Task: inverse folding
């Protein structure tokens, strides 16, 4: 595994673990000052968040939600890209979950872009 790939995977795993463990404070460290987040909601084009504080506010809100249970299906990395396939569940009922994907770009050990 190349150094870039190893670093990207480590950062993306740390990022995702903040959601699985409901520890929004764990999102702080891996997010860069110039981070950009493109979200799928609201439809049809989603929202764009620019800058560290805007990205942190969004991600911390999601990570701190006690009603959401996140489960990683797969975490992988290729160079400066990390990919997380995940499932958020919002209740114990069988159909109350979806599948999603985050595509992250890592530079200098920090997330600079999140597409999800």
Result:
């Amino acid at each position: 595994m190349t150094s870039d790939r190893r670093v990207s995977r480590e950062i993306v795993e740390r990022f995702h673990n903040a959601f699985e463990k409901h520890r929004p404070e764990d999102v702080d460290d891996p997010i860069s000052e110039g981070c950009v987040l493109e979200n799928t909601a609201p439809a049809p084009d989603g929202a764009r968040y620019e800058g560290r504080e805007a990205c942190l506010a969004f991600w911390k809100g999601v990570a701190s939600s006690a009603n959401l249970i996140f489960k990683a299906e797969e975490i992988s990395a290729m160079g400066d890209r990390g990919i997380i396939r995940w499932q958020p569940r919002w209740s114990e009922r069988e159909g109350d979950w979806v599948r999603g994907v985050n595509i992250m770009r890592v530079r200098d050990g920090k997330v600079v872009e999140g597409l999800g």
